[in-house]
Amino acid sequence: MHEFSLAEQVLAIVLAAAREHLLTRVAVVHIEIGQISGVSLEALTFAWEFVRSGDPLTAGAVLDIKQPAGHGKCAACGYDSVVTEPLRICPRCGLTQLEITAGLEFNVLSISGE
Ligand SMILES: [Zn+2]
């Protein structure tokens, strides 16, 4: 499962940051996942609840997920639009020159803990 490996990557980032900042417990992991990134939040949360228990530092850590909307800008006509699918077809001129400018993010932003 794709989300399982993403959850493992998040865990590795969080553990490294927690150790660097000498935390004894991570409470919240702030993460951004773009709305058109194709990541299932349900599957990711499920996978996270499994992988977090592998280390006492993260055993109680919950995910706080921000979801940037999808945006695209057409290189042909300049149209800037909200997009709901990761396609490159411009809704105005129909050419496949839409560049996705937001919505594909997958980043660990910060962690909170003590
Ligand atoms: Zn266009």
Question: Can you walk through the features of this model?
Answer:
The protein is an alpha+beta fold and 114 residues long. It has one domain: hypothetical protein PF0899 fold. It has two helices and six strands; from the N terminus they run αβαβββββ. The strands form two sheets. A three-stranded mixed beta sheet has the order 2-1-6, covered by helices on one side. The protein has a three-stranded antiparallel beta sheet with strand order 4-3-5, with no helix packed on it. The longest helix is centred in the N-terminal third of the chain and has 19 residues. 24% of the residues are buried. The mean pLDDT is 95. Zinc ion binds next to loops.
Show the helix and strand layout.
Blueprint: H1 2-20, E1 26-33, H2 41-51, E2 62-66, E3 71-74, E4 80-82, E5 98-102, E6 106-113
Parallel strand pairs: 1-2
Antiparallel strand pairs: 1-6, 3-4, 3-5
Bound molecules: zinc ion (ZN).
Order of helices and strands: HEHEEEEE
Percent strand equals 25-35%
Give Rg in angstroms. 17 Å
First CA to last CA: what distance? 32 Å
Strand order in the sheet with the most strands: 2-1-6
Helix content: 25-40%
For the record, the CATH architecture stands as 2-Layer Sandwich
- Secondary structure: number of strands: 6
Category by helix and strand content: alpha+beta
CATH fold category name: hypothetical protein PF0899 fold
The overall number of domains is 1
